[in-house]
């Protein structure tokens, strides 16, 4: 039989040191300080009960606490786990190495070449993420042509016929295309204007689809609607990122246009800004918020739900491009080689009611991050692209090369040149055999994206990101981010 300890006897106290029972006496019958008075016995019982509770709590905490594995003390295992959980503070050098490794994965692929029958370069382009159809805008002397370029096969990645000599014109006009945007439901919008602003048109339509007609295939536009605004200028347009809302935002001089598909046609809402505002760039921050870059250095926001307008930022010079990094961070490009990133969670500062960007005393909002290596004097909104997934910002340069900047450090990412793999092979050939010249391939993986020079100016850059919409499937439909660009008569894609 197990020993349960001393038995409790009413009126008696068991002393564990002397192993005897002592009668508990009243306080008034014993001198003060007696060990077996009623008050002293009560204090001992309370102290013993408190000590047991503390021990039970300590044992419970020790039993339920998850102990850190000894494996995490090793640099390899512990560092990888922290990096995966996002708790590892990556240094700037490590971020730069990650960006360089990402850039080396890009390979060059040519998608279209219109030099066979057109002597003018590609001004703007867009690709339908659902079908892979390329729309190329060609600005000629006093008119434009919009050409359709469809994939040769339905398989992935999308492939195009580079030897195609006949392109399908789907739209033409007597002015120049200033912007082109693609919606989530194969809707597209084209803005065009003359250099003097006498004729300005905004056209919204469906991506052309093939129709059989007696053995031949005819490509026609469905549901086309054109709005005319003589005497104004349009520089930029953007697509609403909400897949359920077929809406476009267009910057027209001092007013913002919202073009919405209402099913039976297209509806137009005009939001008036203060007089003198000149909208140079338009971008959607959220499906309900549009941000506009103005020529007077302001960055203004419009809430589609309430119709409110607010100015949150002021750039050092006139704004030429605005791009979204996430719901809080935006990248703003301006004149005189000013490229900064701002965080909207910071309190607004440095904003003037009537800014003068060319004045010496002009103030500006303190940026969250700057890009000191950016040296392009004038850049349009279509020459600026952001990929939050790759943590990269792409822009054009005066040397006709693509520049890539890190969104984390603001530094120019320029990997070291990669020598052709054929030069690393020490294979010996007989001397009597003639040596063949090295083969130049457009899809060679040895040329990095930042070190590839182009003979003509780069007119348009577009990142196809996966997070922008579920329908966007980048890299020719392979589910990877890719960068599309146009230069001269060609459209190329850099994908992993």
The CATH superfamily of the domain at 118-383 bears the name YVTN repeat-like/Quinoprotein amine dehydrogenase
Q: What's the average pLDDT? A: 83
For this structure, the CATH topology of the domain at 118-383 is Methylamine Dehydrogenase, Chain H
Radius of gyration using CA atoms only: 35 Å
CATH architecture classification name of the domain at 118-383: 7 Propeller
- Order of neighbouring strands in the sheet with most strands: 3-31-30-29
Structural class: mainly beta
Number of helices: 3
Q: For this structure, what is the CATH class of the domain at 118-383?
A: Mainly Beta
How far apart, in Å, are the first and last alpha carbons?
A: 77 Å
Number of strands: 31
Which residue ranges are poorly predicted, with pLDDT under 50 across at least 5 consecutive positions? 211-218, 421-434, 436-441, 469-473
Which percent range describes the beta-strand content?
35-45%
Report the major sheet: 4 strands, antiparallel
């Amino acid at each position: 039989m197990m020993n349960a300890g001393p038995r409790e006897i009413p009126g008696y106290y068991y002393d564990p040191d002397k192993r005897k029972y002592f009668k508990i006496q009243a306080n008034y019958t014993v001198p003060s300080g007696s060990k077996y008075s009623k008050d002293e016995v009560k204090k001992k019982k309370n102290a013993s009960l408190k000590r047991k509770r503390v021990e039970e709590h300590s044992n419970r905490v020790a039993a339920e606490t998850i102990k850190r594995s000894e494996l995490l003390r090793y640099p390899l295992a512990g560092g990888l786990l922290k990096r995966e959980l996002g708790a590892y503070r990556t240094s700037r050098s490590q971020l730069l190495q990650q960006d360089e490794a990402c850039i080396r994965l890009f390979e060059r692929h040519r998608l279209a070449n219109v030099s066979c029958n057109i002597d003018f370069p590609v001004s703007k382009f867009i690709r339908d993420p659902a079908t892979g159809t390329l729309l190329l805008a060609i600005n000629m002397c006093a008119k434009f042509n919009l050409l359709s370029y469809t994939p040769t096969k339905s398989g992935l990645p999308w492939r195009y016929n580079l030897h195609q000599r006949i392109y399908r014109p789907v739209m033409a006009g007597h002015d120049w295309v200033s912007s082109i945007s693609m919606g989530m439901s194969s809707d597209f919008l084209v803005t065009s204007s003359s250099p003097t602003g006498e004729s300005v048109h905004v056209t919204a339509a469906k991506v052309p689809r093939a129709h059989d007609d007696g053995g031949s295939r005819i490509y026609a536009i469905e549901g086309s609607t054109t709005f005319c605004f003589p005497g104004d200028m349009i520089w930029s347009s953007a697509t609403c990122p909400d897949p359920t809302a077929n809406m476009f935002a267009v910057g027209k001089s001092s007013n913002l246009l919202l073009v919405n598909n209402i099913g039976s046609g297209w509806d137009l809402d005009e939001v008036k800004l203060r007089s003198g505002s000149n909208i140079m760039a338009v971008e959607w921050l959220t499906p309900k918020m549009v941000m506009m870059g103005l020529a007077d250095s302001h960055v203004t926001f419009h809430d589609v739900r309430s119709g409110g307008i607010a100015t949150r930022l002021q750039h050092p010079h006139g704004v030429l491009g605005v791009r979204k990094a996430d719901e809080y961070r935006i990248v703003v490009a301006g004149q005189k080689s000013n490229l900064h990133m701002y965080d909207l969670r910071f309190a607004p500062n440095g904003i003037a009611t009537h800014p003068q960007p060319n004045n010496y005393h002009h103030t500006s909002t303190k940026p969250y991050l700057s890009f000191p290596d950016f040296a392009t004097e004038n850049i349009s909104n279509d020459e600026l692209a952001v990929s939050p997934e790759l943590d990269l910002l792409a822009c054009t340069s005066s040397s006709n090369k693509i520049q890539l900047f890190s969104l984390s450090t603001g530094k120019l990412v320029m990997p070291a040149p990669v020598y052709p793999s054929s030069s690393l092979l020490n294979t010996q050939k007989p001397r009597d055999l003639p040596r063949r010249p090295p083969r130049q391939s457009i899809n060679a993986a040895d040329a990095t994206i930042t070190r590839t020079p182009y003979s003509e100016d780069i007119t348009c850059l577009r990142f196809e990101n996966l997070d922008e919409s579920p329908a966007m499937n980048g890299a020719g439909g392979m589910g990877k981010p890719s960068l599309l660009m146009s230069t001269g008569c060609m459209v190329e894609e850099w994908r992993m």
